[in-house]
Amino acid sequence: MSLVRLHVEHPLGEGQIVPLDPAQAHYLFGVMRLGAGAEVELFNGRDGAWRAEVAEAGKKRGLLACRARSAPQRDPPDLWLLFAPLKKARTDFVVEKATELGARRICPVQTEFTNAERIRRDRLQATAVEAAEQCGGTFVPEVAELVRLDRLLADWPEGRALMVADEALAGAASEQDLASAPAALLIGPEGGFSDAERGRLAARHEVTRLRLGPRILRAETAAVAALTLWQAGAGDWT
Amino acid sequence: MSLVRLHVEHPLGEGQIVPLDPAQAHYLFGVMRLGAGAEVELFNGRDGAWRAEVAEAGKKRGLLACRARSAPQRDPPDLWLLFAPLKKARTDFVVEKATELGARRICPVQTEFTNAERIRRDRLQATAVEAAEQCGGTFVPEVAELVRLDRLLADWPEGRALMVADEALAGAASEQDLASAPAALLIGPEGGFSDAERGRLAARHEVTRLRLGPRILRAETAAVAALTLWQAGAGDWT
């Protein structure tokens, strides 16, 4: 059996003692039934992965003692995933898959035809943490606050390429073009972009269009496919 | 608004009258509230997509009259997806995504460490139909019966390449190798292959290994990523 993996905020290193919050203590000692002396793997997104031993196990608290580093810190390439929120299960799915596939940052974007007015950022961040724990990584992508697409474009960082998965985006480069990092992937919303949004996107020099085959993909499928293509062609799969 | 799309078994063509079964009649007239004269799009996996008009709308029956072909028949490349069944929602997800991404055939496979003893083939086939209706395609992949991996390999068709997404598969070609169609993708089960299974796979000359990056992907993520890579590199996305 593989070790239980836990994301913590605390610094990790030789001899570090890591206190648990009540939810973590409940998970390790209540759900997973670990006791003093049991081994777990910890990561915090900065210091790699560490084997740690349960030093104290209480109902609502506990202490873990770092023993040895089990994996170096490994950050994914500087790729953002931008997508318009979907129904709950599919939004969770996109966050989970973006974490597994190695996005650096996940940005929910409000477009003209997006229904969501708000997201539960904390819940989505917890989904990313859980996915990172599951997939054996050492990095948790940040889930950003919901932002309007026009606002996002107005503040777009110099030098970051933007690849848009949208069939109807004209004007932008028509060839498949996997820009190198820093980069971002923007998945078209279920209802499509508005004409004004397409115009605004096509006018920007950072924008290229990403083609995802002859069939119409649902937004969450397009997200996974776009992340895969980019990682295989310009990311860390090569 | 785009047309309601419906998969039927009946032949489609100029002047064809297509009878509806009770479930289809309920969907069109009860759920979607269509009445006589309304337009829908039909496909049967053989004759392309056809615009049809509601000629008779009853509670448990109805007739549609084909008007004109709206799209030619378009079959995906000859690619099979082989995977070990997961929990219900994730198995449904794999079938839905394989349909969207253009697999020709979906084969649930029982491996030594697969928990599922049986699948609901009819339910998974219905999931594939629904996905094809949603994604605007004209083709529905066949969902095969659950078959044991050793049995499947014993009957493996001559000339069909088999790409295996499994980190620990030794002996097979170590380079990324996207074989051309006819081909199949085999996704490693959640519990991994047994040593005996790995040995049997590695011994076969049709088998190559497909690498899916440095992070550990869940089985359903690996399925989507593998389908994407193959379609983009050797399938109909190019």
Automatic annotation (TrEMBL), chains A, B:
Residues 76-231 form the Ribosomal RNA small subunit methyltransferase E methyltransferase domain. Residues 20-61 form the Ribosomal RNA small subunit methyltransferase E PUA-like domain. One of its GO terms (biological process) is rRNA base methylation. This is Ribosomal RNA small subunit methyltransferase E. Specifically methylates the N3 position of the uracil ring of uridine 1498 (m3U1498) in 16S rRNA. Acts on the fully assembled 30S ribosomal subunit. The keyword S-adenosyl-L-methionine applies. It comes from Histidinibacterium lentulum. Pfam families: Methyltrans_RNA (PF04452), PUA_4 (PF20260). Signal peptide: none annotated. Belongs to the RNA methyltransferase RsmE family. Its EC number is 2.1.1.193. GO terms for cellular component: cytoplasm. GO terms for molecular function: rRNA (uridine-N3-)-methyltransferase activity. It is found in: Cytoplasm. It comes from the Bacteria. The keyword Cytoplasm applies. Keywords: Cytoplasm, Methyltransferase, rRNA processing, S-adenosyl-L-methionine, Transferase. It catalyses: uridine(1498) in 16S rRNA + S-adenosyl-L-methionine = N(3)-methyluridine(1498) in 16S rRNA + S-adenosyl-L-homocysteine + H(+). InterPro entries: Alpha/beta_knot_MTases, PUA-like_sf, RsmE, RsmE_MTase_dom, RsmE_PUA-like, tRNA_m1G_MTases_N.
